[in-house]
Amino acid sequence: MTAEDAGPAAKRARTDDAAEVADAPMPDAAPDAASEGEDFAKYTVTELMKLYYSRLFPHQDFAKWLAYGNDSKHAQADSQYFQRREFCFTLEGDIFVRYQSFKDGDELQAALVRRLPAKIDIGPVYNVDPQRRAAVAGGERAFAPVERELVFDIDMTDYDSVRTCGKEGHICHLCWPLMAVAIKILDEGLREDFGFNHLLWVFSGRRGIHCWVCDDRARQLTDEQRSSIATYFAVYKGEEKGLAKLALSYIHHPAVQRALEALNETWIETILPNQELLENEGNWEAVLAYIPDEDVRDTLRSRWQAGRVLKMADDSINVARWHDLVAEVDKAAHKEKDLKRKGALSRCKDEVVFAYTYPRLDMEVSKKMNHLLKAPFCIHPKTGKVCVPIHPERAFDFDPDTVPTVAQLLTELDSNNGKSSMDDAVEVFHEAFLDKLQLASRETLAAKARSAAAKPTLAW
Question: What is the pLDDT of residues 220-233, one digit of tens each?
Fold first, then answer.
């Protein structure tokens, strides 16, 4: 479960057994069948969940993803695979119900419509059906996860110290490039450096993004391997005394250099002007703090306070001041005789860019196989927005302000002959992820069949 969605433990009633809450009262709901011209905006998100789960939630595509081809009649398919997957429902009243399992997408949808969870979390695939864990020889100790997607979670609140457009739950088109460049860097790194192919990127519904790495190899990683991959991307290590702690060396690792090229472009084109990071003294002092030379800081500060900056026609004042900073730092580095100070001056420009723009991962989410993460296509209870997939090649075009709400979807459904913006979200799900994954899953089953056929037997 992500920090974004989990409330304080003391405020959450928890249970592991569905039977304990089977008779819990369900939330009030909008009518099962809307009248013509129904104003869905008058209902709360909770009241619309039954209509959403019964009419819009793409349960069959959802199940096809998590079955990984094992829902087919192929001889090598594991018909029990999907049923060994853990689902966790957060019900009305913050009742947290773990170890739910279902034989297929239809049974999942029936449970969603019946129980109306405010949130669905996805856990690992276990060695037995999670609902039968108590019957395993050896009890709970013998019940263990055997497979789980490698996941990443990035929350916009972790950028509050470097963005000016808003804080906490706020997200908008001005700060979205921070998420878009994070997608670009992680997507390229996971594909090019680790050879993964099947990555699902999802908007969290409020202020962040999730990544599901779904290759066979990724799902079978140990906790130690997951932690190592997450650490590989952990250039940003938190903050100390107002400055970012960064794992950077004088000569950049190729992956860091590749990231820097992407970050520099985004920094100049969107983040500097959008966030107005050099617009005024309150903002520019935080940037100047990274320059390890007091004379350079004083020179830039005096020049900017006096308004003496050559501004190109197409540049914002923020971009113009950045070019001024780069030139002044380069001049000081060129004159510096002390090699250590010269190196520090040369690095400080990159440190600013990494400090303000590099992905800030929630490391704990990625490290453990049994960590829960919110499912795609959930409805965020506070915003009413759908957790829609994001095409990684179009991440900079994504606008969190235009993500559909459940009320909007239901209105579209009734006024557009059964069509809605959910169709677009499902299309992205297929185009960017599911279609290629299903092809790979079929190839995996075929390879298992060939391997089985090649094994020697005692038959004459």
Answer: 999 999 999 999 99
